[in-house]
Amino acid sequence: MATNYKFKKVKAGRDHIADNFHNALSLSDMAQHAHISPYHFLRVFKDTYGETPNEFLIRLRVAHAKKLLITENHSVSEICEHVGYSSLGSFSSLFLKQTGMAPTLYRRKLWALSAEPFCFPAQAIPACYARHFLGK
């Protein structure tokens, strides 16, 4: 467990990731905002939050992409760029790994549940049903 001093530094790095997840971020950038070395930042971050900074970054990007896929009519490529990925293939494979389905299939399944376009299906059906339908 990190001390309070280390926790504040790692939290500053984590906040930087959360505020800038749509930009290209390197471990050095993240650690620089925490004012500690990159490898020490990596170890303390994993010890504190149970995931690496990159895993946290991927989780944020995929969560934002899921929201955009449902609420916006942008192409998957545009959403890929909007959440900070330059490669559609990398984005699609990470999205598939995180959610269990490709971005296009995710969009189709959730749009099919909603009577209104660009609307979360949770507004039309109970969230527990949507989670069950998606296997979450």
TrEMBL record:
Query: Keyword Ribosomal protein, does the record have it?
Result: no
SMART domains in the record: HTH_ARAC
Q: Which GO terms describe its molecular function?
A: DNA-binding transcription factor activity; sequence-specific DNA binding
Please state the span of the N-terminal signal peptide per the UniProt entry.
none
Entry annotated with the keyword DNA-binding: yes
Per the record, the domain of life is Bacteria
- Pfam families per the UniProt record, alphabetical: HTH_18
Question: What InterPro entries does the record point to?
Answer: Homeodomain-like_sf (IPR009057), HTH_AraC (IPR018060), HTH_AraC-typ_CS (IPR018062), Tscrpt_reg_AraC-type_HTH (IPR020449)
> Entry's Gene3D superfamilies?
Homeodomain-like (1.10.10.60)
| Keyword list, A-Z | DNA-binding, Transcription, Transcription regulation
From the Swiss-Prot or TrEMBL record, give the protein name. Answer: Helix-turn-helix domain-containing protein
What is the originating organism of this protein? Pseudoalteromonas rubra
